[in-house]
């Protein structure tokens, strides 16, 4: 759909940087190879681990990709690795990213995407010079920064940006082509999906976690601050699992500290991590332990996730599905053309049938055949009255709602009914094919019910110098006419 942009994507689909290795090299590369933009979940302030993650991804794709970082922690080492590897972009989240930091990123050839959840934060990000704003609604899974729905937030941010060169991406509960089209209608240029990509072949999420996603709906998620209280008191949207239902009433002063029981172990970024109850890490492919007693993030779009697919197929389905929907919407809203017809009659042996068609505000097209004419030019006009009780004489003057002088069809000064000349061949026939914007088939100046008149002589187009040039074009007698009537579609 023509989404080539400063971010390097082909189709406007972005992968969220989901932590604990979920958005790892394989998943990011798969999304990038399908024309989307994958974002790695980078470790907190770890230069070597970030470097390895980026280089492993580069082995799997030559397409642009980026990495996400949390601003609530010291990330200088991770940022240095991103700059050293010249990634296409860096997504920043949960905190301010100053103009000086944006300038430093740009100096290193790295675009900046700021994920945020309010218009106020968007204004700060715009002032800092970011390249893209990822507008997140509370419908999103994982850590949620805002309280305003995507459908309200995105157009507000689009309006604030105005004509500045900042791309808007919508994120939160978007999981299929319909969500993509909705985001585009709101003014976004792309979407970012997380929950949908967890349930992909290349996702590093534990298979148990992937399978659980297939059994939950939009009514089965919860907005909570139960997890990661000791390290990062940020609200999250999670699957409302039996474990979560049991523990979500836990008092606010209970933190997931060393006193909490161990529920499992994971290898995260190459190092073993102990998982305690209420820890914020989800289960990845290495996790062992009580998987059912671990957090499972999921957005309200989870009800649309009903299969585990290759990430490339997910991207393709979303993009091609959106193209199909947009095409169908276009056909639904296409204006039905108005059609009319006129049967020309004459005492001079002239006859013919002409067809009029107009779609919306497009020019009216006239087609058909007239026969029985003398070879040469014949004036051809729309007259004001649909009255043939006295032959063609009673059709009145040219149709001229603007009270202008007679002229040629291409002249600015002309009667609306001035359609110039028809050229009859030696056989007395003329094939009519005219397009004119001043003879609409609907509205206050509609020609329906008025008359078509063919004249005996050429129309001088108002330039002949005759006393009738400015009124009739001195086109001579009216030799054929007919009333324009609506035709069934």
TrEMBL record:
Single GO MF descriptor: nitronate monooxygenase activity
Domain Superoxide dismutase copper/zinc binding residue range list: 350-484
Keywords, ordered alphabetically: Antioxidant, Copper, Flavoprotein, FMN, Metal-binding, Oxidoreductase, Zinc
Annotated region (Disordered), positions in chain: 400-424
Gene3D superfamilies: Aldolase class I, Superoxide dismutase, copper/zinc binding domain
Enzyme class: oxidoreductase
InterPro entries membership: Aldolase_TIM, NMO, SOD-like_Cu/Zn_dom_sf, SOD_Cu/Zn_BS, SOD_Cu_Zn_dom
Biased segments, Basic and acidic residues type: 403-417
Protein name (Swiss-Prot/TrEMBL): superoxide dismutase
Species whose genome carries this gene: Papaver atlanticum
Classification of source organism: Eukaryota, Viridiplantae, Streptophyta, Embryophyta, Tracheophyta
């Amino acid at each position: 759909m023509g989404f080539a942009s400063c971010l390097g994507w082909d189709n406007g689909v972005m992968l969220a940087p989901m932590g604990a290795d979920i958005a790892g090299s394989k998943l990011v590369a798969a999304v990038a190879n399908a024309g989307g933009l994958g974002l790695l979940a980078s470790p907190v302030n770890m230069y070597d681990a970030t470097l390895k993650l980026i280089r492993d991804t580069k082995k799997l794709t030559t397409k642009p990709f980026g990495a996400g970082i949390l601003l609530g922690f010291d990330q200088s080492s991770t940022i240095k690795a991103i700059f050293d590897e010249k990634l296409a972009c860096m997504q920043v989240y949960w905190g301010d990213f100053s103009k000086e930091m944006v300038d430093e990123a740009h100096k290193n050839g790295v675009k900046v995407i700021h994920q945020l959840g309010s218009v106020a934060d968007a204004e700060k990000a715009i002032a800092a010079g970011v390249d893209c704003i990822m507008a997140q609604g509370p419908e999103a899974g994982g850590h949620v920064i805002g309280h305003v729905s995507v459908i309200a937030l995105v157009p507000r941010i689009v309006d604030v940006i105005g004509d500045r060169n900042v791309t808007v991406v919508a994120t939160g509960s978007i999981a299929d082509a319909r969500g993509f089209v909705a985001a585009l209608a709101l003014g976004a240029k792309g979407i970012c999906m997380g929950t949908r990509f967890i349930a992909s072949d290349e996702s590093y999420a534990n298979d148990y976690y992937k399978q659980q996603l297939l059994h939950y709906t939009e009514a089965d998620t919860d907005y909570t601050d139960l997890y990661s209280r000791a390290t990062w008191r940020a609200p999250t949207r999670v699957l409302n699992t039996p474990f979560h239902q049991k523990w979500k009433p836990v008092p606010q002063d209970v933190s997931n500290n060393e006193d909490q029981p161990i529920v499992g172990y994971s290898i995260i970024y190459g190092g073993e991590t102990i998982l305690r109850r209420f820890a914020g890490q989800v289960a990845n492919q290495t996790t062992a332990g009580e998987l059912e007693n671990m957090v499972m993030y999921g957005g309200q779009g989870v009800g649309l996730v009903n299969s585990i697919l290759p990430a490339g197929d997910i991207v393709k389905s979303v993009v091609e599905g959106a193209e199909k929907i947009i095409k169908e919407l276009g056909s639904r809203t296409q204006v039905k053309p108005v059609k009319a017809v006129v049967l020309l009659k004459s005492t001079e042996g002239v006859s013919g049938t002409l067809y009029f068609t107009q779609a919306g505000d497009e020019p009216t097209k006239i087609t058909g055949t007239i026969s029985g004419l003398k070879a040469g030019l014949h004036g051809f006009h729309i007259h004001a009255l649909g009255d043939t009780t006295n032959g063609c004489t009673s059709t009145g003057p040219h149709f001229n709602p603007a009270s202008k002088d007679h002229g040629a069809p291409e002249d600015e000064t002309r009667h609306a009914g001035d359609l110039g000349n028809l050229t009859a061949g030696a056989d007395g026939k003329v094939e009519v094919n005219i397009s004119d914007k001043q003879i609409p088939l609907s509205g206050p100046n509609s020609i329906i019910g008025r008359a078509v008149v063919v004249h005996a002589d050429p129309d001088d187009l108002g330039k002949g110098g005759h006393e009738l040039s400015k009124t009739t074009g001195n086109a001579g007698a009216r030799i054929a006419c007919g009333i324009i009537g609506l035709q069934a579609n």
